[in-house]
# Entry
Amino acid sequence: MSNLQVSIYRYNPETDSAPYMQEFQVDTKGRDVMVLDVLHMMKEQDSGLAFRRSCREGVCGSDGMNMNGKNGLACITPLSDVVKGNKLTLRPLPGLPVIRDMVVDMGLFYKQYERIQPYLQNDTPAPAIERLQSPEERDKLDGLYECILCACCSTSCPSFWWNPDKFVGPAGLLQSYRFLADSRDTATSERLTDLEDPFSVFRCRGIMNCVAVCPKGLNPTRAIGKIREMLLADAT
Amino acid sequence: MVTNITSFGRSGLSDWLMQRFSAVVLALYTVFIVAYLLFNPNLDYYAWTALFDQTWMRIFSLLAFISVAAHAWIGLWTVTTDYLKSTFVRVGAQSLIILAIFVYLVWGIQILWGA
# Structure
């Protein structure tokens, strides 16, 4: 078994005039390790290599990256899922400004998240106990609240690449629907009004890259369809 | 709040609805014309003009023309806002597209109702 050939995106704006791809030979000892383990083996060879990681179990969403052309979390992606012909190409999440190597500036992604007001809004007086939901109402939030904001979906979306300042993106819209669907939220019509322009929701062309890459198996395209249904019901 | 003054209906929801409605009209018109041509293999000028002399066919055709105009405007507006990042180039392209759509629409009406 020959060593794994890894080609990784390198860029240090303080010393490099342009980004370049660096080749590594990594000995995985024939084991089917996770891509994150390979990154650590590379960091042993070159301690200057920069990437984000934290929980290493697919919960924190720090190590979203592009592995052989597909976005995903390095910590829960085994080599057998992505490596073809003993070669692995690692790039930062596409479309976001690179700070250094695999570390990207998530500012625009968070700005769009902030824009959809991702918190419960309720203008009725607070009850003495919790605001209760029926099991059916609670079921509507399944498949929405699990998002870890790793940005794999939004950075695989061409509509987000071209208009990251105006199109909310799949991650933001999934969270937007999470609050639109919540029986305890009373700001539904204000939320919908903020989304009816030609960009925020409607720049989605339904190509479902977001669904294909989501490491948590969520479906932003379905949520976007539900938002469109709510907008239509509200305005016609 | 994101706004855009050059989009067809100034609202994403109305553009989206119009795009789908016009698509259905165009699909029906295409199916009808193709079926008509298939079922009339020896079509001559008189049969063709007789078809377009009927009021329902003129209404159907005009609906299809207007649908093409709206569909093209919404679709190409989306393409220009995606890919043309220079404001000067984008507004120029949008003006040309809208002008072309207007010319084709008037030309189509003239063919439909002209002598």
